[in-house]
Design goal:
The chain is mostly helical and 130 residues long. The chain has helices at residues 8-13, 16-25, 30-48, 55-65, 75-82, 86-116, and strands spanning 118-121, 124-127. The chain has one domain. It contains six helices and two strands, in the order H-H-H-H-H-H-E-E. The protein has a two-stranded antiparallel ribbon. Helix 3 (30-48) packs across helix 4 (55-65) and helix 3 (30-48) crosses helix 5. The chain is elongated, with a radius of gyration of 20 Å. 11% of the residues are buried.
Length: 130
């Protein structure tokens, strides 16, 4: 029986089974647990600040998409040590960013339409999309 994802990293980038496997595999290896924690923190930061315009988002985005860095705590190195698919994670991050952009656009568009177009009903105005 498949378990539901237990954290945002698992559910958002679709690696719940892999995450559990890695967590179990490296539970007794503090250095690898640290690398996983760095990755999870970067993911949370990316999601939280995706359209904030803050420099922290641009830093973490650069960290995820820099394919040349070989530093110990670079995204490439962490994925190599933890045996994670860098390309899959990057594609999922881009997909999440696109979905968030679409959601924000819909909110803006619908918010503006709701302010301008109302149909009167017995229970008050009814918002109507054009």
């Amino acid at each position: 029986m498949r378990q539901e994802p237990t954290n945002l990293l698992e559910s958002q980038i679709g690696i719940s089974d892999r995450h559990r496997e890695i967590t179990r595999k490296y539970n007794s290896q503090p250095e690898r647990r640290l690398l996983l924690a760095v990755l999870e923190n970067a993911f949370w930061t990316y999601c939280k600040h995706v359209f904030s315009g803050k420099s922290i988002f641009f830093e973490v985005e650069r960290w995820f998409f820099d394919s040349t860095s070989k530093d110990l705590f670079s995204f490439n190195s962490i994925c190599q040590v933890l045996e994670l698919n860098r390309g899959l994670i990057r594609r999922q991050l881009l997909a999440r960013k696109a979905l968030e952009a679409e959601r924000r656009y819909d909110l803006i568009l619908n918010g503006n339409i709701k302010k301008r177009h109302h149909i009167a009903t017995p229970n008050g105005p009814l918002n109507q999309r054009l």
